[in-house]
């Protein structure tokens, strides 16, 4: 939950934006931060989905008993 956004921030900054696309240091910080923020949102959405589906399943199982 923490390592994926941080890892993608540094790897996208170094390899994608500065390495492949040849952006300046300042621009690569900006775009790498966008990648990290989007990753945080995706990870949180997956976490909420899994928590919601487990809660719904437990609620249904408890309702049947």
From TrEMBL:
Upper classification of the organism: Eukaryota, Metazoa, Chordata, Craniata, Vertebrata
Entry-linked Pfam families: VMA21 (PF09446)
GO-annotated cellular components: cytoplasmic vesicle; endoplasmic reticulum membrane
Protein name per UniProt: Vacuolar ATPase assembly integral membrane protein VMA21
Record flagged with keyword Transmembrane: yes
InterPro entries given in the database record: Vma21 (IPR019013)
Alphabetized UniProt keyword annotations: Cytoplasmic vesicle, Endoplasmic reticulum, Membrane, Transmembrane, Transmembrane helix
GO term, biological process aspect, one: vacuolar proton-transporting V-type ATPase complex assembly
Transmembrane segments: 29-52
Top-rank lineage group of the source organism: Eukaryota
């Amino acid at each position: 939950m923490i390592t994926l956004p941080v890892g993608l921030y540094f790897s996208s900054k170094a390899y994608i934006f500065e390495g492949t696309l040849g952006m300046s240091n300042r621009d690569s910080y900006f775009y790498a931060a966008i990648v990290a923020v989007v990753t945080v949102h995706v990870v949180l959405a997956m976490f909420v989905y899994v928590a919601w589906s487990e809660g719904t399943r437990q609620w249904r199982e408890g309702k049947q008993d």
